[in-house]
Amino acid sequence: MTISMDRDLSNYRKTYNKGELLLEDTPENPLELFKKWFHEVDTYFEEDETNAMTISTIGLDGFPKNRVVLLKRFTYEGFIFFTNYESEKGQAIAKNPNVCLSFFWHGAERQIIIKGTAEKLAENLSDGYFESRPRGSQLGAIASNQSSVVKDRKQLETDLRNLEIQYEGKEIPRPDFWGGYLVRPVSIEFWQGRPNRLHDRIHYQLDATYNWIKNRLSP
Predict the structure, then answer these.
(1) Confidence of residue 209 (pLDDT cuts 50, 70, 90)
(2) Distance from the first to the final alpha carbon of the chain
(3) Are 66 and 128 in contact (CB under 8 A)?
(4) Is 75 annotated as contributing to ligand binding?
């Protein structure tokens, strides 16, 4: 069957009616609202992979690029994820640490957009998380030269098998090229879908005195 690339999607419609977000009901610190929303989605909307987030970076070629990674921890300092420092995203962050994170939880009809700066996590914290990972994930992090060209999948599987033999019965050390990032937010926007496209948007911006200023944005 041939599927035409010329598809009209103008009739795709969805009505959003699962909640509301009023400025007077929001806390002064957006991290409190993030914690609340994350808990609600994680508890009541099992179809969503709650900690899956899109991270956007500006690549060495000057183009923005988005990809999905997994949030592994959040605190009042910011948002933590782990990756290969030598990957495309790692190289992009090294050149320009300004990034954007976004969560879209379709079950709850909610979206969060976070602008911030990324910095490498302390080595002991990266060590601790690496040690908590399954052995297969530890070995996979070493075997994959992330974002580089690879001959075929067989090569990856061979490299992994060789590492399994090399580290059989041994502790697997965290490689220097793999670890965590902390994204410190400077702005956070919360979006709640509403009927007739009159969505609720509450935007928090960090000011020069490190206080959060919040406003309602027009949809």
Answers:
(1) very high
(2) 40
(3) no
(4) no
The whole model's pTM is what?
0.92
SS3 of residue 143 by DSSP: helix
> Domain residues of the chain, as ranges?
30-131+177-216
User: Is 153 marked within a binding site?
Assistant: no
> Structure tokens of 200?
């609720």
Residues making up the chain, counted from first to last:
219
Choosing from 7, 73, 197, 216, the catalytic residue is: 197
**For the structural domain made of 30-131+177-216, what CATH number should be given?**
2.30.110.10
**Residue type (1 letter), 120:** K
Query: Is 13 one of the annotated binding-site residues?
Result: yes
- For the packed helices 135-143 and 153-166, what is the interaxial angle rounded to 10 degrees? 120
Q: What are the Cα distances from residue 25, in Å, to 28, 190, 198?
A: 10, 13, 18
According to the annotation, is 146 in a ligand binding site? yes
Distance CA 7, CA 18 (A): 29
Active-site residue 197, yes or no? yes
Spatial separation of the C-alpha atoms in residues 127 and 140, rounded to whole Å:
16
**Nearest C-alpha neighbor of 178 from the set 138, 148, 135:** 138
DSSP track, 74-113: E-SS-EEEEEETTSHHHHHHHH--EEEEEEEETTTTEEEE
Token duo for residue 69: 């990674």
Q: 178-192 and 200-206 as β-strands: parallel, antiparallel, unpaired?
A: antiparallel
- For residue range 69-101, what is the model confidence (pLDDT) as tens digits? 999 999 999 999 999 999 999 999 999 999 999
